[in-house]
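mind reviewing these tokens:
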Amino acid sequence: MLPDLIVEILSPSNNETELRYKFDLYESQGVKEYWIVSPENQTFTINTLIDQRYVTSRMMTSGDVVKSSVIDGFTLDLKAFFEGID
């Protein structure tokens, strides 16, 4: 059974090849949402599966509010989420 949502918290050791592999894998396996969070850059991106392909949101930052399409009613205030991360 596949999860509906995967959240990737980036670390300095993540690289583009690894992220591309995961993006392609999760998309091909039908994961409905794949979130990528960068604590270092304080950015948040949502990849939403539409017609079996990921549509990537704009890059969100502090001040934006994230809404999930798979967790009904879930919102995340990024200002509060990233608060205290340096």
Observations:
- The two ends are 37 Å apart (CA to CA).
- The mean pLDDT is 94.
- The first strand starts at residue 5 and ends at 9.
